[in-house]
Amino acid sequence: MTFAVPPPNPAALAERCTARAAEHDRSGRLAHENIAALRETGLVALTMPRRLGGGLTLARATAVVVTVGRGDPATGLVHAITLLQHELIHRDGAPWPRTVPDAVGWDAEARFALINALRVEPEFGTPARGGLPATCARRDGDGWRVMGRKIFSTGAGALNPCGPRRPRSPIHRLTSVS
């Protein structure tokens, strides 16, 4: 396996997570300690482009996710979703300017931010079952206004959707969320 940077040890992370996983499963709480340990390893950015600190394909990152998931399946799932979303937003032909995924990538690299697609709506459920979500984004001056309601996102308690960006990042700013 080739990494853009020297690889951290996912097996050691899995071992650290194992001790806490059963208690989190019993309580139904997100394993924040395990998510923090995941962030500390630097494994969050594996599927971003090399220029942003990543460089692995999803196929190669899968081995890392499987190892982490053996220690705590919930942490492995949050990790897998983050890696998948990075792969999707950074791939050629993505539907937004490169500055948008780059800003998300810088956040992941600098603060080990996790990401997910918030898709589940009260009236609609998940888009995987067909149809169009009611949530929409509209231009608002020099930013965007996002209107709608989401009811669930895996790992939401560990996400930082409106965190600070690089000061000179050309990303369109979010002016409000309704």
How helical, in percent, are the residues? 40-55%
Regarding CATH, which class?
A: Mainly Alpha
Please work out how many helical segments DSSP would assign: 5
Helix and strand run: HHHHHEEE
Give the averaged pLDDT, no decimals: 77
Q: Which structural category do the helix and sheet elements fall into?
A: mainly alpha
The percentage of residues in β strands lies in: 5-15%
Per CATH, the superfamily is Acyl-CoA dehydrogenase/oxidase, N-terminal domain
| CATH architecture classification | Orthogonal Bundle
CATH topology: Butyryl-Coa Dehydrogenase, subunit A, domain 1
Concise account of the structure shown:
The protein contains five helices and three strands. With 178 residues, the protein is mainly α.
What descriptive keywords fit this protein?
mainly alpha, 3-stranded mixed sheet, 3 strands, 5 helices, 178 residues, disordered C terminus, Butyryl-Coa Dehydrogenase, subunit A, domain 1, 8% strand, disordered N terminus
